Amino acid sequence: MQNELPSAAIRRRGLMLVISSPSGAGKSTIARNLLESDQGFQLSVSVTTRPRRPSEIDGVHYHFRTKREFDLLRDNDALLEWAEVHGNFYATPREPAEEAMAAGRDMLFDIDWQGAQQLREKMRGDIVSIFILPPSMRELKSRLTRRAEDNADVIEARLKNARVEIEHWREYDYVVVNDDLDRAFHAVEAIVRAERLRRDRRPGLFEFVSGLLDEKI
Ligand code: ADP
Ligand code: 5GP
């Protein structure tokens, strides 16, 4: 019986939080807010062949690599999942994610639907996934334009791709519409709080309950 296992033998498994959305819906903003407000999360820094945006730092936002370097990592099984998105390659490095999970630390993945599918196959019980929707396609376009980090062709390609991405919304555990940023962020916080309270993420409960039952009254 599971509740007869010594509590030390039961390790908390890390929460693997996957956030996806069409480009411009606000997932990076929400992810950044979560990382700032919640010290329990570590960001999975992806590898990409996409050119660096002016505001991005290599090793912080992404590990920027050439296609040749990317292929080498993939061939050496150093990538947990990988996908082609908007004509560039993106991937989750294997080692940091596996280390976090083994140590019971929570990790945040800002990846697309293809990556989310691959992680669900590999880490089914550990993945909690959230899909962020824009309030309208018009607002999505205006956010991409206001962000002003991509040229007009890139924005057009991302808008086209948004429809493909949105079609995968049903594969996610939770869906949050990012109309008002504060409201959307609080919804994500509430999801995280509830998921951390799940019985199977709280091995300490075994000890607590057995203490309760042993208590002499
Ligand atoms: P993604 O990571 O999904 O591509 P970003 O987080 O980069 O999107 O957000 C795209 C742009 O929209 C950014 O300029 C961001 O500041 C802005 N933004 C995010 N959420 C909102 C919101 N709720 N209302 C208005 N602008 C937003
Ligand atoms: P961007 O170029 O705007 O930073 O990201 C483009 C898309 O690639 C986003 O949907 C983002 O979530 C996705 N992405 C970023 N990193 C990864 C990754 O490691 N794997 C996968 N599959 N997608 C990623």
- Alpha-beta content class: alpha/beta
Number of domains: 1
Name given to the CATH homologous superfamily: P-loop containing nucleotide triphosphate hydrolases
Shape: globular
Q: Any guess at the CATH architecture?
A: 3-Layer(aba) Sandwich
Strand count, sense and barrel status of the largest sheet are:
5 strands, parallel
Outline the structure in words.
The structure is a single chain. The chain is of the alpha/beta class and 217 residues long. It has a single domain, classed as 3-Layer(aba) Sandwich (Rossmann fold), CATH 3.40.50. The protein contains 8 helices and 9 strands. A hairpin with a 2-residue loop joins strand 5 (79-85) and strand 6. The longest helix has 16 residues, at 181-196. Bound molecules: adenosine-5'-diphosphate (ADP) and guanosine-5'-monophosphate (5GP). The site of guanosine-5'-monophosphate (5GP) has 16 residues, from strand 5, strand 6 and helix 4. Adenosine-5'-diphosphate binds next to helix 1 and helix 5.
Q: Which SSEs are present, and which pair or pack?
A:
Elements: E1 16-20, H1 27-37, E2 41-43, E3 47-48, E4 63-64, H2 67-75, E5 79-85, E6 88-93, H3 94-103, E7 106-110, H4 113-122, E8 127-133, H5 137-147, H6 152-166, E9 174-177, H7 181-196, H8 204-214
Parallel strand pairs: 1-7, 1-8, 2-7, 3-4, 8-9
Antiparallel strand pairs: 3-6, 5-6
The structure holds adenosine-5'-diphosphate and guanosine-5'-monophosphate.
Adenosine-5'-diphosphate is lined by residues 21, 23-29, 143, 146-147, 178, 180-181.
